[in-house]
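I'll show a record.
***
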Amino acid sequence: MAHLLGSARFASALTLCILGTAFGTHLLRATMGWAGLLAILITLVALATLSLLSRRESIDWYGLPPITILVFLGWSILSVFWSTTTFTSGGRVLYLLLFTALAVYLTLVRDTIQLVRGLGDVLRVLLGLSLTLEVVSGLLLDLPIAFLDIQGNIASFGPLQGVFGSRNQLGLVALIGLITFSIEFMTRSVPRMQAVFSIALATLLVLFSGSPVTFGAFFVVGVAALALAGIRRVPAASRMYWQLGLLAAVTILGAVLWLLRSSILNVLNAGSEFEVRTALWREILRYTQLNSLQGWGWVGAWQPTSPPYLWLNLATGVRRARRSAPSSTCTSSSAWSG
């Protein structure tokens, strides 16, 4: 048994299970409930612990979290004692610690290329499943899949939600997949046609997600990749000058984008969503002043029925209602999950 738990094949299989659970939490909650998801996480942590014990002599303990993450975890644990929702905070901190333990396991037993390969395999399955369910919902059945929050909008080219619960989540995962598949392509760690198909799938879902947040991130990632590729081709003697020029260009571009932000938001159809998020952050900053040092306690995903999250939802909800009123000249905001 110890030989099996300490084998590379077991570590590879466990890596796929961990990454699949991490990126498929919405799908697992929708099909199995919180009890099923927590049972999976506890089982994975137990298996990871046994695997580490079996491999303890060959592990270099360089994969421990950075000091900043350890401080954040410690502060999250302490916040349970002053949280306005003590039991909820305690449960959410435990949830956070379970994922932290799994992340530490991955950094200790897998190298970068192994993680990329594992992540690529998981995202290929989840993104492929997302597209399949969207086709079934939007084209074959012409009905939403309510328990997965799939609205079936593929016939109108989106926005799509896939198995991730919202268009923003689908767009973010698809963007991560696009980066991962591109690394696979450049390192030739998978067959060429498989990498090309994966890149096409991720790009399609990024576009069909209809997520303005993802579009912005996609633009930044693309520009950064091109800049990095260009800098690496420059001779070492003149590389510093090119880096300074790139810094100046980024500064100027940032200023131009800020001046044209209204037009850009209109092009991306993100005006109403941006207004909601801006209003939300204004309220957050206002409530932060009440508990500026200790905060309100770690809860992860917000508890919409508990203060201060109830007050934040009410405050921003009033703004949404006013914008969607017939007499208003503003368009109504998109859904919070959108």
